[in-house]
Amino acid sequence: MNLQMAKLYMDAAAELKSALDVKGEMDLAALLRQKDIFTFERRGSVTDEDWEPLRTGLESALDQVEAWRAREGEALQTDLLSRADSLEGLLFTIEARIPRMLEAYRERLKAEMEKVLAERIEESRILLEAAIFAEKTDTAEEATRLKSHIEMFRKLAASDGPIGKKLDFLCQELGREINTIGSKANDVKITQTVIDMKSEVEKIREQVQNVE
Question: What is the C-alpha separation between 188 and 134, in angstroms, rounded?
Fold first, then answer.
């Protein structure tokens, strides 16, 4: 930096101001724009020795990032597998509830028919109506597909490589089967369990967004 040249600029500016009777000041910004005040020395090429501290620092930083990503991946995998187990447990709850739902419907139907007809109804007729109801509310196929999707989800979640899109697709399939089960259910407890399953799938989808 040439301080003498900078002083000459300041003196010249002051002289011009006085001679021409103009307003204004020579400020720092104006000085910095004067290229002949500064000179830049070109250094030699960067050697391996110069790069070594930077290379070491970068490698250390990259190692830390990789370690952090590995820990995050393990935690995410554990969470996804845990939620898959939770989803399967809720499905088992529904399957265990279905026989009780059918029996409750049969008893309710029998009571209503006897009340309306004011006479004892043949058991065969009750069984026929109950069978029709059971067929309408049958969710065996949906449950089977749901179990298959959950098992596939587990395998993908435990595997390596880019699986984010596949897991997201499976979440859509899980949601579709759960919605069908919910639409067929004619039981308060099953409906509540379906709501819990939907909530679990939504949490899974949120986590899946963090998977590559």
Answer: 16
Can you tell me the distance from the alpha carbon of 27 to that of 100, in angstroms, rounded to the nearest whole number?
89
How many Cβ atoms from other residues are within 10 Å of residue 50's Cβ? 12
Q: What is the pLDDT of residues 173-188, one digit of tens each?
A: 999 999 999 988 888 9
Distance from C-alpha of 15 to C-alpha of 9, rounded to nearest angstrom: 10
- For residue 175, the SS3 value is helix
- Whether the predicted model's global pTM rises above the 0.85 cut: no
Q: Which two tokens stand for residue 101?
A: 């739902």
Burial of residue 168 (number of CB atoms within 10 Å: 0-12, 13-18, 19+) = middle
Q: How far apart, in whole angstroms, are the C-alpha atoms of residue 81 and residue 67?
A: 21
- Could you give the CA distance from residue 51 to residue 57 in angstroms, rounded to a whole number? 10
Dump the DSSP string for 12-66. Answer: HHHHHHHHHT------HHHHHT-GGG---PPP-PPPHHHHHHHHHHHHHHHHHHH
- The residue behind tokens 């039981």 is 187
Domain borders along the chain are 3-37, 76-208
CB 9 within 8 A of CB 34: yes
Distance (Å, whole) CA 147 – CA 91: 8
Q: What is the DSSP string of 59-93?
A: HHHHHHHHHHHHHHHHHHHHHHHHHHHHHHHHHHH
Write out pLDDT tens, residues 4-24. 777 777 777 777 777 776 666
